[in-house]
Amino acid sequence: MEVNYAEKVLGGSIRALSRLISYLEDEDEEAYAVLEMLYPFTGTSYIIGITGSHGTGKSTLTGRLTHVIRREGLTVGIVAVDPSSPFTGGALLGDRIRMGELSTDPGVFIRSMATRGSLGGLARATRDVVKVLDAFGKDVIIVETVGVGQDEVDIVSIADSVCLLLVPGLGDAIQMMKAGLMEIADIFVVNKADRPGADQLNAEIRMRIKQGEQFKPTEWGLPIVETIAVDGKGIEDLWQTIKQHRNFLEKSGKLIERRQEQIGQETLRVIHEQLFRVIRQRLQDSGHLDCIGQEVMKGKHNPYSTAREIIKSWLPACPI
Amino acid sequence: MEVNYAEKVLGGSIRALSRLISYLEDEDEEAYAVLEMLYPFTGTSYIIGITGSHGTGKSTLTGRLTHVIRREGLTVGIVAVDPSSPFTGGALLGDRIRMGELSTDPGVFIRSMATRGSLGGLARATRDVVKVLDAFGKDVIIVETVGVGQDEVDIVSIADSVCLLLVPGLGDAIQMMKAGLMEIADIFVVNKADRPGADQLNAEIRMRIKQGEQFKPTEWGLPIVETIAVDGKGIEDLWQTIKQHRNFLEKSGKLIERRQEQIGQETLRVIHEQLFRVIRQRLQDSGHLDCIGQEVMKGKHNPYSTAREIIKSWLPACPI
Lengths: 320, 320
Known about the structure:
Two copies of one chain form a homodimer. Chain A has helices spanning about 5-10, 15-25, 30-40, 60-70, 90-100, 100-105, 120-135, 150-155, 175-185, 200-215, 235-250, 255-285, 290-295, 305-315, and strands at about 45-50, 75-80, 110-115, 140-145, 160-165, 185-190, 225.
C-alpha cells in the first residue's frame, strides 16, 4: 500500500477510511497490518446491534435512530450486513439515500457489506470494519443485520447493546428466539407497534423473558420498547433505553467483562484462521490434497479419519 | 446411541435414516461416528443440484423431475435447503406434500433442512445428509437450494450436475451469475418459459456463456433447457440433458476427477472445524483465554500479535 492508511484514517480522511475497508473486505494482508496499527486507538465507540428478520424495518429504524443520535452531536457509523440477500444491498442503500440528510451528513458514515468468499469471511470483515470505524473516532457504531444463521449471531454479538426487532403479525418471534437471539438481545423492540397483534406480541415476549430468567437470571431487566419507525415514533425512547443499558454496563463492570471476553474470542478466531491457512497452504503445496482424494476413493481412508491424522501430526499434544 | 444406526440405515430402515439425519443436524458426535461407518458405502448416488433465487419455481421443478426419474424405476432423495428463510421451511414442505404422490411413494425420501447452529453448520449438515442418503442407496439425490450466499454455493457444489434456474422478467440473471453461480452451473434452466422475456433471457444466458468460455473453455457445451414446471413441460428434456451430462462426466473421467477434488475440499473443511474445537479446548483448559482479554485491554498486546505468538509456540517451524 503506497499511502499510510493508519495515519490518514486517524487524521479523519473519509477517502482513506473507505479504501481501507474495501481492502479489508478483500482480505488484503497489508490492510490487516494497518488494522493492527489502528488497534490501540479502538475501544471508545459504543456499538449498537440492530437485528431482526426481513420486513421488520431495520433500515428505517437505523436511519431514524441515527437522526436522534446526531441531534446530540454524536457521530455515527452504520454497517449494514445482509448476507442472505446480497442483491438487496443496493436497494437497502438506496432506501438510506432516499432518507435524505443522512447520506450528506459528514458525521455519518454508511457501509453496506456483501457476502464474502472465505469461510466466516463476512463475520470477520464486519468485525474489522467496526474496529476501523472505532479507531476513526465514531462515537456510536450501528451494526444492522438479519437475525438468521450463526454468522449473523456472531456478527451482532460484537455489539455492546443488541436490539432485537420484532413486528406484530409476522409470526417470527418464537423462531427468532429459537435461533439463539433471545440470549443475546438486550433490548426488545416491537416495531410497527400500531399494527394489530402488538399487545399479543408484547405478552409473548414478556413470557419468553420470564422463561429465560429462570435459566439465566440477569441484573438487567430486559426492556421492551414500542416504535413506529416509519413515523419516527418511539425512537427517542429507544435511544434513552440504549443509554440506560450502556450506563448499566459501565456501572456494573460488565462492559469491561464483555469486551475482555470478546477479545478472547477474537484472538481464538484469528488463531484458527491463521493456523488453518498455514495447514491448507502446506497441504496444497505438497500435493497432499490431491493424494487424499485418490486414497479415499480407493477406500483406504475417509475424510474424517484423514483430517484427524493431519491435525494430530500438526498439534501432537492435542486430544481430538 | 442405543441402536446400530449404520446397520439399520444400510438395511433400509427409513425410521433409522430419519433419526440419524436429525442427530447429524444436531451435530451429535456419535452420529458423526455412524457417518464414518457409512462412508465406504457412499459414492454410488448421482447428485443433482437445483439452484435459483426465490420464485423461480425450484420446488415445483424438483417435484416434477422426481416424477420423471421415478418412472424409470430409480429411487430419489430430496434435500431442500433454505437458510435465508428458515421460516418458509414448513411452507415449502407443505407445497411438496400437496404435490401428492411424492410424499407417499416409498421410493422418495424428502428432507427439509433448517438453519443450524455453528459456522457453516448448514452446509456441513447438508453434505452429511447427502452422504447418508447415498449410503442408504438412493439412485439419485436432488439438492434444492436458493442460490444466494457462499454457503449456498458450497452446498450446490457437491452436486455432479448443477442446474441453475432462471425466470424471464425476474431480472436476477446477471446477479446470479455475478454471485459465482455461472462458474458452477452445468445446465441452465429457463423456467416459466411461456412468460414474456424468455427469448431475451435466453439470449442473455447465451452471451454470458460465450463470455465465460473465453476465460475458461470447457468440453461440455453448457445447454439451456426451457421448462414450464407447473405444467410439467420440458421436464423430460431436462432429465435427458442431466443424463447426457452424467454420461459426459463419466466418459471423460471428469466425474472421478470432480469427486476426488470434492473429497480434498471436504477433508479441508473437516480440518477447519476440528481445528477450531482443538484450539479452543487448549486455550480454555490452560486458562489462557481469560488472560488474553485482560492483557489486550491493558494495551500490552493486540489480538493479532497474541495470535501470532501462540501459533509460533505451537508450530515452531512455521513461517507466519
